[in-house]
Each structure stands twice: as structure tokens, then as C-alpha cells.
TrEMBL record:
<dbReference type="GO" id="GO:0005730">
    <property type="term" value="C:nucleolus"/>
</dbReference>
<keyword id="KW-0808">Transferase</keyword>
<protein>
    <recommendedName>
        <fullName>25S rRNA adenine-N(1) methyltransferase</fullName>
        <ecNumber>2.1.1.-</ecNumber>
    </recommendedName>
</protein>
<comment type="function">
    <text>S-adenosyl-L-methionine-dependent methyltransferase that specifically methylates the N(1) position of an adenine present in helix 65 in 25S rRNA.</text>
</comment>
<keyword id="KW-0539">Nucleus</keyword>
<feature type="binding site">
    <location>
        <position position="176"/>
    </location>
    <ligand>
        <name>S-adenosyl-L-methionine</name>
    </ligand>
</feature>
<feature type="binding site">
    <location>
        <position position="156"/>
    </location>
    <ligand>
        <name>S-adenosyl-L-methionine</name>
    </ligand>
</feature>
<dbReference type="Pfam" id="PF11968">
    <property type="entry name" value="Bmt2"/>
</dbReference>
<keyword id="KW-0489">Methyltransferase</keyword>
<feature type="region of interest" description="Disordered">
    <location>
        <begin position="23"/>
        <end position="46"/>
    </location>
</feature>
<dbReference type="InterPro" id="IPR029063">
    <property type="entry name" value="SAM-dependent_MTases_sf"/>
</dbReference>
<comment type="similarity">
    <text>Belongs to the BMT2 family.</text>
</comment>
<dbReference type="GO" id="GO:0016433">
    <property type="term" value="F:rRNA (adenine) methyltransferase activity"/>
</dbReference>
<keyword id="KW-0949">S-adenosyl-L-methionine</keyword>
<dbReference type="InterPro" id="IPR021867">
    <property type="entry name" value="Bmt2/SAMTOR"/>
</dbReference>
Amino acid sequence: MGRNKVKRLKKLPISAISTANQSTISAPSSADLPASTAIPRADRRAKRSVVSRKVTQSTISRFHVLLKRQAYLKRRLTSDSNADESAVLIKEELAAIDQDIDALGGLDAYQIASTLGQSNERGGDSSKVLVRWLEEIGLKREANSQGHRLRMLEIGALVPTNYAASSRWIENTPIDLHSQHPDILEEDFFKRTLPNSNEEAFDIVSCSLVLNFVSTPAERGKMLELIHKQLKNESSNAFLFMVLPLPCLTNSRYVSLASFNELMSVVGFTLEKEQWKLGGKVGYWLWRKCASEQDSSGKWRRKAILEDGPRRNNFAVILP
């Protein structure tokens, strides 16, 4: 007689073995799956990061659209040319915009989304670029050798610690219109008192992703002029650090990279450093304060189309 063949049982994962208290077989966990099936933890984190980044950017973009429309309607409402019927429609749309802003969580939600957008996981904040540039042009070495700190005004600060690592040579004053931290001064830059002396003025003003958020071209021009007045005189090394969405200068009907340089010369700035790439989303610029130029032609006190097209934006800056 031949030997009876013993049928081998296929081994099951531990999680699939029923216990005395279980009558059904539980599904295998991701740890029990083959390596080709289980999703690596790093990949799961990366996917969550991508999703969060898209949600964050979507929230910020939506706020920008709503607030820009809100500012436009408020200007129309205060003009004398609107009939009563038109004013009613404008008020109705403003009320709808307020509801949309509240539905997004209000301005607090915008600030939180913006803060998340500059987290280290997202590549850090623009302060790293500024600190590197200040080191390259020798301001860090100069401040350390003279035993003083550079006075800086950070407009639109989201967190108070952007320059904490450089606090030995940078004395930062962070301000924001809607402060989300007790160490950030809640202040409207347009209403900030001008310095009475060169000692009260700043060596550096940081304006990162703020100018594009100002509602009108004239107010943007006014902001640049006020920044010029907040900085120390031309005999000192005084700088404006600016960050803008690159399409503001590369895809606008009214502004180009070249024309913006001309405008800044009129305000009183010469370009020291820049960092951007074609097709990029953001550009960085460092401007050195100099004497303002005369705009005798009035070229920068009105909007003029440089390049037109259906896909171009309406970003513009005019001097008041």
C-alpha cells in the first residue's frame, strides 16, 4: 500500500487565525500585506502633504478673490455716480461675499492657511532668502563687527519667529493687520507713524506677499512710498525685501519686469538682487534705497496697457 499523502495547509497571517472569541476571520492589516501591496508610510505622508497643500492654496486663492471683489464693490458704493437701485444690488452682493468669507472661517482661517503655507514641510518661508542675501552683501558681518543689530520691519508677519535664528544681528518688528500671535503687533501699515530721525528708521523692510494683496493700484503705489519713508536715509545701507507672485510682473496687462524696475527707480530703489525662474510661481527681490526720481511725465500716475490678452491679469501699481 502506498503512503497516504498529507495535504499541507497554507499558512495564514496571524491576524486571520480565529480565536476562541472570534467566529469570523479578520481581514489582514496593511502590515500583513506583501511589500508590493502595502502603502509605505512615507508615501502616505507625502500624499497627505500634497492634499493639504492643494487645500491650503485653494483657501488662500478663494480669499484673495473674495476680498478683492469686496474692496471693488465698497469703492463703487462710496462713489456718487451709483443710483439707488444699483446701490441695493451692490449691498446684496457685499452681504453674499461676507457670508462666503464666514463660510471659509473668516480672516482667521485665511491667516492660518497662510501660516501653514510657509511651514517647513512646505519648503520654509521667504526669510531664508533674505537672510542669505544679507549675509552675501556683508550686512551680517558689518552688524557683528560694529556690535549692533539691524532694525527690520516685517509687514504681514504670520509667525513671530521667522528671524529668531538671526536675532543676534537682526532686531525684527513683525506687524500684521490681523495678528494671530501676541508677539506680532496688530497694526495697519498705512497708519504707522513715520520715523522722526534716522535712528528711528529701519535698515530693512520685509514685504513678502503683501503688495499683491493691497486692493488698488494707487494704494500699492502709496505703500511703496511709505516703505521708502520708513527706511533709513540713502547714505545708509537700507533695503526693501519684496516677494510677489511672479505672474504679477510676467503676465500682467499693465506691468512687466522691466517697467516695474523703472517704477521702483522713481520711488527711490535700485535693484540689488533677484531670484525667480520662468514659469515659477514666486519671485524674490532685494531693493536698495536711493534718492527718488522725478516723474515729470506722469507716466506712473495712470494705468497703461503694455501687453493685452484674455489670460493676462490686472495687477498694476500707480503712484498717488
